Every structure is written in structure tokens, then in C-alpha cells.
């Protein structure tokens, strides 16, 4: 995968850091995942929204993932796809790191589209 528009040195450095972070961040124990899935009654058809997921390792274990990034965050794609079950990806042409605050209409539209894509009806 290429990181279009990102200087090659930055892309290389980010990839090395992402790999090191992924290796250093422990996985969640299967028992913890099973407990959460049971306690939260997670099953096909349940809605889950995980804001500020960090590494995304927990989210990956539970549900499909949608990602909305601004032009400032597009370098995370390789990392996000490695650590999550990404089924929806959107890149905003405006806004910054806090898209929900900086571009709230686009944020809400994208969240709704993600849920429609995974067969949930969201009004």
C-alpha cells in the first residue's frame, strides 16, 4: 500500500512506529473479550460505537470498524487496517484531528452511512 501525498521518509517512519506500537501493545485476553461480549449482549444486529478507540485492538475483536479521517490523519490507514476489521473508510477534505467537533455534519453523515453499510437502519 502506498501513502499518497505523504513524504516517503514520513511514511517509512510512521510504519516503523506503528509496527513497534502494535507489537508492544498487549492483546486483550480471550476471557475478557468473552466477558464483554456476554455482559454487553453483543450479537449480530447489535450497534456498537467506539469513539477514540486508541489502538483498536479491542474493537477489532468485537465488531466491524468504520474510519473517518481528515487530511491530517490519512497516514493511519495501514495501521488501522492491520489492527481493525475496517469495512468503511472515509477521508474528509476539511477538518482536523477532532472531526466530530470541526466537521459535525460530515461526521454524523459518515456514522450513519457506516451503519447503513453494515445493514443497520439509522435515522
Account of the protein in words:
The protein has helices at 8-24, 30-39, 57-62, 77-83, 99-102, 104-117, and strands spanning 65-69, 86-91. The chain contains six helices and two strands; from the N terminus they run H-H-H-E-H-E-H-H. It has one domain (8-117).
| Portion in beta strands | 5-15%
Main sheet: which strands, in order across?
A: 1-2
How many separate domains?
Answer: 1
The amount of helix comes to 40-55%
Count of extended strands: 2
List keywords for this structure.
mainly alpha; 123 residues; two-stranded parallel ribbon
Task: Give a quick summary of the entry.
By secondary structure, this protein is mainly alpha-helical.
List the SSEs and their pairings.
Elements: H1 8-24, H2 30-39, H3 57-62, E1 65-69, H4 77-83, E2 86-91, H5 99-102, H6 104-117
Parallel strand pairs: 1-2
